[in-house]
């Protein structure tokens, strides 16, 4: 009898300790997901030429041939029959606030890491038994190295997701929030009076010409309650979603947001001041090496008979519609439907 009570007591203590850790993690990471503006609330819109510093080399746009194409299973066909006229993952999974969280990549072409970590965070939450968190884009950007690409000059999002599968990612929020194991350390920069500057105290101090890739520190920031190894979360190998509208929709309906690469032209920046849905009309690419970009597709809809994809960008909440934008759907606008990748969290 005494032995039984001892076993029950030990088991109860272990459960309580586990719950405490979960609550502590939520307390540390459950920052205000409903924020309408970020730390750059005073920043001005990027000039037509300046936003190219946040793009990546064109070679990273195309999904590598060794990335497997998603096999069409019965569930995909069933989901295809349930496709709605409009869909928004933020409303479908309201507890998963990471879906609606707009990150800020700053003056670094790290969109591949930011979008991949963001999508992985969403799917961790959508697929129980995981709970809301933000996986660290810093951990991915700094540690994946040449396997993923070339740091602030770009990278392959499918390689980034494969890194998540084999090496895992720790938690980490944005530069301003500074929570989790490894938060983003590239400072937010804005375009003010013709120069990149820090907007925090109103003095607009000049930013460096470029930011170097952060060091791969395999340890959590001081004060975090777990060590680096304990904070790791893992995914499954990445896959390429067929370049077909219904296949992409079925994937989002069944599993959550996906990552997409596309070419950015001059008329993309500030297009929302002219029209609600982006369609490439004029301008080319002035960035040496190309103008690739990676975003997260979280839904779709139709407005004024124009079908569109609903996407989350990583240029802060001052850009676009609170950081989101819509792009024409069904015409492979700028290649956005040709290079869609995703991955699932490890069970």
From TrEMBL:
GO annotation (BP), single: proteolysis
Signal peptide: 1-17
Domain Peptidase C1A papain C-terminal residue range list: 83-344
Domain of life: Eukaryota
Keywords: Disulfide bond, Hydrolase, Protease, Signal, Thiol protease, Zymogen
GO MF: cysteine-type peptidase activity
Gene3D superfamilies for this protein: Cysteine proteinases
Family: Belongs to the peptidase C1 family.
Protein name as it appears in the record: Peptidase C1A papain C-terminal domain-containing protein
Species whose genome carries this gene: Mesorhabditis belari
